Amino acid sequence: MLNSYSSADKVLLAVDCIIFGFDHEGLKILLIQRDFEPEKGKWSLIGGFLKRDEVLDSAATRILNTYTGLNDIYMEQLYAYSEIDRDPVERTISVSYFALINIENHNAELIQNYHAEWFPINDAPNLIFDHNEMVQNAIKRLRYKTSVKPIGFELLPEKFTMRQLLELYEAILSKELDKRNFISKINSLDILNKLEEKDMQSSRKGSYLYTFNKEKYEEKLQNNFALNL
Amino acid sequence: MLNSYSSADKVLLAVDCIIFGFDHEGLKILLIQRDFEPEKGKWSLIGGFLKRDEVLDSAATRILNTYTGLNDIYMEQLYAYSEIDRDPVERTISVSYFALINIENHNAELIQNYHAEWFPINDAPNLIFDHNEMVQNAIKRLRYKTSVKPIGFELLPEKFTMRQLLELYEAILSKELDKRNFISKINSLDILNKLEEKDMQSSRKGSYLYTFNKEKYEEKLQNNFALNL
DNA sequence: TTTATTAATGTTGTTTTTACATTTATGTTA
DNA sequence: TAACATAAATGTAAAAACAACATTAATAAA
Fold this sequence. Notes:
2 copies of one chain form a homodimer. Chain A is α+β, with helices and mostly antiparallel strands. Chain A folds into 2 domains: 12-148, Alpha-Beta Complex (Nucleoside Triphosphate Pyrophosphohydrolase), CATH 3.90.79.10; 153-223, Orthogonal Bundle (Arc Repressor Mutant, subunit A). In chain A, 32% of the residues lie in helices and 28% in strands. Chain A has 6 helices and 10 strands. The first copy, chain A, has helices at residues 56-68, 103-113, 131-148, 162-173, 179-189, 214-222, and strands at 12-23, 26-33, 43-44, 46-49, 76-81, 92-102, 116-120, 160-161, 192-199, 207-212. In chain A, a hairpin with a 2-residue loop joins strand 1 and strand 2. The model of chain A has no long low-confidence stretch (mean pLDDT 91). At the A-B interface, strand 4, helix 1, strand 5 and strand 6 of A face strand 4, helix 1, strand 5 and strand 6 of B. Chains A, B: InterPro entries: NUDIX_hydrolase-like_dom_sf, NUDIX_hydrolase_dom, WH-like_DNA-bd_sf, WH_DNA-bd_sf, WHD_NrtR. Chains A, B: This is ADP-ribose pyrophosphatase YjhB, NUDIX family.
């Protein structure tokens, strides 16, 4: 029977951030090389401890900022990991958070001032503690999210081609999609603006650039919907 | 910059359980009347504190058992709540868990030996702290689950009629479903055994009883699927 | 001017979903 | 014992969504 509050069983509460990014090479996660013991020098998710006067969401934001300088990144809570010896130093429960960001907007900053580095999700180093598991679960969540929310806004440059959007979805779902069917499904969502402008990098013909229509996009974000790709 | 482990910011970690049940009256949640301060006498989710040598899943199981005598209930972790003053006594982060159980199998035991009580989800008392929010989020999760996993096994009596199954889904989704379409979708899942036996309670004609085909059911549980109701 | 490259575009058959009404079995009542 | 009342069981057709698929168009480079 639970009787009263005791301070006997307080624990350390950590936050670990799974940051997804996307560029021409594919889907990536942001990792850092730990600069303290234990496991110093090993690759790890960006993480830190919750402070007494902080909610988890803020801790996640603060920690991400501390390690990467990134600001105003919306993160979403995922799961609390609590295996007894997941951290060998001290009993620590860790709550994972994940976010999507646009690599090109942030890359210079990250690489220059911090020791954070992007790794392709299929070619990342082995991570400390239970961080590999955290990443795998975050990928699952990301896949699920593609089917109920429009994503891409955060991961692509402001102006992008249909091919880039297609490749983003293919990278997330790790399967090939039919180009024509993909395009017509995306168009049916009615969240893109087709620009006059063309991107001439990728072909002689050039391909139209698109931007997200922020208002319509936000509207869709409210009401879940099904996007079967 | 995060430097080393400090014990300065340890917190209490709680677990709160949202237990769903179903009977002829509809979908219900299990609540208890708090028998300690603060908020003594008010209704609350079943909850308690994580112990140092315990993982969250075990804590959830232990706490549920302590308050209700219930054993072997599979629970699933949902979300960590961390508002600073969510618990007025002391900074406490709470991780919510949810489970589905069959009311009829457990009711007697619960009501007799403990102070737990079932409330219809649409007619439950106001709860302490942020427990109302926890319940609302759990309902959302439950709805989501209906679309990717077969549920019902846990909530219905061993033998049940199609009508009962229909009413369960209607209660969870809180919308009416077309009976014929529902039945054919359920049948297409191929997880039920139709018995010879009929239930004569509900009508003069009587309606066939079904059981879940445990093997096929388990099989479906593994692989997510889409059930659009 | 020809060539090479990638972009843009639409149709058809198949499957899934939705909407919807009649007949059947059986206990109750007149 | 016949008529009645009640809920169960059942099927179809139209609409929508999905999947598979190949040709033409625009442009830079040779």
